[in-house]
Write a structure and sequence with these properties.
- By secondary structure, this protein is an alpha/beta fold.
- Helices cover 46% and strands 17% of the residues.
- The chain has two domains: 7-216, Spore Coat Polysaccharide Biosynthesis Protein SpsA, Chain A (Alpha-Beta Complex), CATH 3.90.550.10; 225-325.
- Strands 1, 2, 3, 4, 5, 6, 7, 8 and 9 form a nine-stranded mixed sheet that branches.
- The N and C termini lie far apart (65 Å).
């Protein structure tokens, strides 16, 4: 189709009035001639809807979906369902997108017929700490075109890989053919999404060029000390993620054989769950979530997927502590 946009931006918006103006400025500064904007207003209760309406006249191909608050995954899925672009991207509204990011990713994607094109970015802290690269150059450097399994193993083996959607663009036909969607109601849904996308992608390329600032807000839920209840919810979200990762590994056994780090990452994320459980102060709540860990088979899954002496040693130390929590 001659009128098909080259890129669709699918953007989840929830109470974004503080960020939307800067976000739209960053998109205009991309200077893209063939762009579809899909904004999903996910039940915002601030002035986001008015701001979204105000910017409609500033973009040629601009659509707004209004829905009740269902979370970022449901918002992305709603936008994905109506996107028409040759490529897809899922930026976050509170981050900074540098001029030229999408032009550069589209350049390598179209030249090399990529399923996934990805670049680097920075962690930027609002508490004054110096920014740092998301993917350190000494750990991950620019690649030629790779099979997705090769890039995934290389990335996970660096121990510096971040599962995110917003540093990537995706070939729309590839996503549609695979039937990929985001898991509704799940925090950190980018982990299973990225894993399955890269396991199935045939042509992937990474450029170690910085085009994105990921803003870490010191007051955000993800970066402040939690309560017992938030630790329990976080543990349950990650249990679901591990179940999804395990299912993915079982769906693609031949591909996972090329990516042993797919098993390592289950144990790695599992250690994060054990750390959260260890920080729960209420002994009854701690016992409850520990029992759930064993009842759902999460502990067995973590142990079976552990790789190397270090992971097994760390898990073995925690096993006896977990058993004590069940008798508290």
């Amino acid at each position: 189709m001659s009128d098909q946009p080259l890129l669709s931006l699918v953007v989840a918006v929830y109470n974004g009035e503080k960020f939307l103006s800067a976000f739209f400025d960053s998109i205009k500064n991309q200077h893209l001639d063939s762009l579809e904007m899909i904004l999903v207003n996910d039940g915002s209760v601030d002035n986001s809807a008015d701001i979204l309406a105000r910017y409609a006249s500033e973009f040629t191909n601009y659509r707004v979906i209004d829905q009740s608050n269902q979370g970022v995954s449901a918002a992305r899925n709603a936008g994905l369902a109506i996107a028409t672009g040759q490529y897809l991207a899922f930026p976050d509204i509170d981050d900074v997108i540098y001029p030229g990011m999408y032009a550069r990713l589209l350049e390598i994607a179209t030249q090399n017929r990529l399923d996934v094109a990805t670049c680097n970015g920075n962690y930027v802290y609002d508490d004054g700490r110096p920014s740092k690269k998301i993917f350190p150059s000494d750990k991950l450097s620019s690649t030629e075109v790779l099979e997705g399994t090769t890039w995934l193993q290389q990335a996970l083996a660096s121990r510096k890989f971040l599962h995110v959607t917003w540093l990537n663009i995706y070939r729309h036909t590839f996503i549609k053919e695979q039937g990929f969607t985001f898991e509704d109601g799940l925090r950190h849904q980018d982990i299973p999404w990225t894993t399955e996308v890269l396991l199935t992608a045939k042509r992937v390329q990474y450029v170690d060029e910085t085009y994105y600032d990921y803003l870490i807000h010191s007051a955000s839920v993800s970066h402040t000390p939690g309560t017992d209840d938030t630790r329990i919810r976080n543990s349950q979200h990650y249990m679901k993620i591990l179940e999804m990762l395990n299912d993915i590994n079982q769906r693609y056994p031949q591909k996972v054989a090329k990516v042993p780090a797919c098993q390592w990452q289950i144990a790695k994320e599992g250690l994060g769950i054990l750390h959260s459980i260890n920080n729960i102060a209420d002994v009854h709540k701690r016992k409850m979530i520990t029992q759930e860990l064993f009842d759902r088979g999460i502990w067995t899954m973590i142990w079976k997927n552990a790789r190397g002496f270090r992971q097994r040693w760390r898990l073995g130390r925690r096993y006896f502590r977990l058993k004590r929590y069940l008798t508290d």
